[in-house]
Each structure stands twice: as C-alpha cells, then as structure tokens.
What does this fold into?
Amino acid sequence: MKRCVIYAKDVQRITGRSERYSHDVLRKIRVKYEKGNKQFVTVAEFAAFSGIPEEKLREYLTY
It folds into this structure.
C-alpha cells in the first residue's frame, strides 16, 4: 500500500533538516496550494514544490 500524504518527519528524512524547517516547508506548500492548516500535503505537491521527482521521494517514505 502506498501513502499519498507527506509528514514533517518525512521532510526531515528527505532533506536532513530540522523539524521546524520541515513544518515551515509544509506550511509554505499549504499556502501555495491554498489549503487549510489541517489539510494534508500530498507527495505530488511536495515533489512539485521541491523539484524532487516523486519516484525518488517514495524511496524515503515508510509504509
């Protein structure tokens, strides 16, 4: 089963940055895609925002 949402912990693993940075990135993505604070960020949205191919991101995601 594949996940379609990305969490701050995933962003930390992918970027090697802090938890605070990860939350900031997710907040910026929500603003860009006009989402609410409680709405999820998808892997596709993170891929488009970061420029990292979706296939590469899936290597880092735990299922």
Q: What stands out?
A: The mean pLDDT is 92. The chain is about 55% helix and 5% strand.
